[in-house]
Protein: Aminopeptidase P family protein
Organism: Streptomyces cavernicola
Amino acid sequence: MSEVYADRRARLRDQCTAGGSAAAVVSRPANVRYLAGAAPRGAALLLGPRADLLLCRSQPTGEPDEGRPDESLQLQVLPTVGGDAAVAAADLAAGQGADSLAVEEHHLTVARHRALLSVAPRLRLADLGCAVEQLRLVKDDEEISCLRIAAEIADQALGELLESILVGRTERHLALELERRLVDHGADGPAFATSVGTGVNSGRGTHRPTDRRVEEGDFLSVCLGAAYRGYRSEIGRTFVIGTTPADWQIELYDLVFAAQRAGREALAPGAEYREVDRAARSVLDAAGYTDALPPVIGHGVGLEIDEDPQLAPGAMGKLDACVPVTVEPGVHLPGRGGVRIDDTLVVRPETDGGPELLTITTKELLAL
């Protein structure tokens, strides 16, 4: 992996050089991990004119949630507890003879930006922008392998829950059980806060579990994901509890399933982000559910659960091969509940079989 991290840093350095910056400081945690193999709390990465350096507040632990630093990368622990690694990196860059420094302005606060200038007043600061995020868009085989395992773990946890008794249990209890099962199957932890919604709460994408108990005839919607070696999967499914689904439940479920299928089928290298969104959204628009739709039909996944690209009506850009995304349309009807279906996939060309589905739990409307 050392060669992989070195190559990533070399590509970023080339961009910095082309932009007129002799050095760069990366401070956003996911970006630090992508380039250095690990992102201990408060760490920053210096791409210096003479040497690259990972600066940390304390000695890295190598725990799964922070990763293991690239062994070929120099490591420096700050002498002052609570020191700012990005500020220390700017000081070191100036000491290495840099006259310009690119920084992630979208991550730094105004106070930290001023602190950088105060320790290295002769440095000309430039905005690195989202250069690292753009490098992260297309995943290599190792990254996709981690995503595939994260998806398998989430599938296992969800599958086991479906085999248990659900009536009478609270949303909060089910969410906690799912997160425990993720860890039992080898996850670093949940990829995000697990959402379980039942009855009137079902189908809401950002629902926080409550003490509402599962009742017969309810829709039950679940959205969870696993983190594995830093990479994050996402899956969402909706079921009916304990009885034959009502006609309105079948109709709504079939509609959301059709929208999700349309979105999945639109995934291809060269497809515009907004066209993927439109493919799924138009199915629900035509049925009169425009006001009940989420603002985004899907998004990228990787070291963060919600990263570029965004599959949204106004999104600009086109998909590349080997970009993992979610497709997650849903409809929530206030006072009744709703349906959400969510998968993690990897964009592939038709010659490779089309989009690769990573989350494989059945999308059949089951009565549990």
About this structure: The CA atoms of residues 262 and 330 lie 13 Å apart. The chain has a mean pLDDT of 94. DSSP finds nine helices and 19 strands in the chain.
